[in-house]
């Protein structure tokens, strides 16, 4: 697959998992002072906070650490979960994957997910100089977001996917079609995107995911058959930052729906 961008890498600073006896809004768990997190005082007596922090770890390794701590601490009674993934970019565009295994772990615990991405690790290290007041906080919402389903394969014919899913793609190409660099594609691709969807808040990833998942939910078995045929199926979340730190939240309902597809999510973030 041709690309005009270089390899990107994401530094995962920490994964913070808060298990509770009752559902708690994920916003209540975050204090944005000094660019960090403060455990909400009102939740201390009913919650267990598990943290995995090491910049050398992958997101999968962080989640493995959390799950091991969960088994050791035996906190099964606290079934509700909120997760805060904190990371920094290494260049203006950073990409990372949230696997279907991690989505399943969240879904089993009615988990909501907050993603907080910083423009650089140096900004996080600056700490108190980056205190965010309530006026600043609104700028950390994305400037632009959208979501899409992407299906690709060496022998993929777009009309076959359209027929299988009973949906028209936002764009597609077949092997042998000419790419933007005037060379033939060596694989086929089919994509359904919310980028140009009307009546959706351009800054709400939640709304874009709900819109896309509602279109696809009845086609999960057909998507599974496409994967069984060897085609690559991925959800892609795109968002453009409005500030040196950008955050977005997916509710437990959306996480559960995403998990039900058994498909990885590619997060594509631009500063």
Structure in words:
This protein is an alpha+beta fold and 271 residues long. 27% of the residues lie in helices and 30% in strands. The protein contains 8 helices and 11 strands. It has helices at 59-73, 100-108, 121-125, 134-137, 158-165, 205-216, 220-228, 252-261, and strands at 10-20, 47-53, 80-89, 93-98, 112-118, 144-153, 171-173, 188-193, 232-240, 245-250, 265-270. The strands form 2 sheets. A 6-stranded mixed sheet has the order 4-11-9-6-8-7. The protein has a 5-stranded mixed sheet with strand order 2-1-3-5-10. Helix 2 (100-108) crosses helix 8 (252-261). The protein is globular, with a radius of gyration of 19 Å. The protein starts with 9 loop residues before the first strand and ends with a strand. Residues 1-6, 31-39 and 126-131 have low confidence and may be disordered.
The succession of helices and strands, N to C, reads EEHEEHEHHEHEEHHEEHE
The proportion of strand residues reads: 25-35%
List the total number of helices.
8
Question: Residue share in helices?
Answer: 25-40%
For the biggest β-sheet, the strand order reads 4-11-9-6-8-7
In total, the number of strands is: 11
Give the N-terminus to C-terminus distance in angstroms: 24 Å
Residue-averaged pLDDT, rounded? 82
Identify low-pLDDT runs: 1-6, 31-39, 126-131
Q: What coarse outline follows from CA principal-axis ratios?
A: globular
Cα-atom radius of gyration: 19 Å
């Amino acid at each position: 697959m041709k690309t005009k961008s270089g390899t990107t890498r994401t530094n995962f600073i920490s994964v913070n998992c808060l298990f509770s006896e009752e559902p708690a809004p994920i916003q209540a768990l975050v204090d944005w002072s000094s660019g960090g997190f403060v455990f909400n005082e009102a939740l201390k007596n009913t919650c267990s906070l598990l943290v995995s922090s090491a910049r050398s770890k992958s997101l999968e390794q962080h989640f493995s650490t959390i799950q091991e701590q969960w088994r050791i601490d035996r906190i099964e009674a606290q079934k509700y979960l909120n997760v805060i993934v904190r990371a920094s970019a290494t260049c203006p565009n950073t990409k990372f994957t949230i696997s279907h295994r991690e989505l399943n772990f969240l879904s089993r615990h009615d988990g909501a997910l907050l993603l907080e991405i910083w423009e650089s690790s140096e900004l996080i290290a600056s700490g108190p100089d980056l205190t965010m007041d309530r006026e600043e906080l609104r700028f950390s919402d994305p400037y632009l977001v959208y979501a899409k389903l992407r299906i690709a394969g060496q022998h993929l014919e777009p009309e076959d996917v359209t027929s299988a899913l009973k949906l028209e793609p936002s764009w597609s190409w077949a092997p042998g079609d000419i790419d933007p660099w005037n060379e033939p594609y060596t694989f086929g691709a089919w994509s359904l995107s919310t980028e140009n969807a009307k009546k959706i808040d351009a800054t709400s990833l939640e709304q874009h995911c709900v819109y896309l998942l509602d279109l696809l939910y009845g086609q999960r078995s057909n998507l599974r058959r496409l994967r069984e045929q060897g085609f690559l199926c991925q959800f892609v979340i795109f968002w453009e930052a409005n500030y040196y730190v950008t955050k977005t939240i997916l509710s437990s309902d959306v996480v559960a729906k995403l998990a039900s597809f058994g498909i990885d999510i590619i997060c594509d973030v631009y500063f």
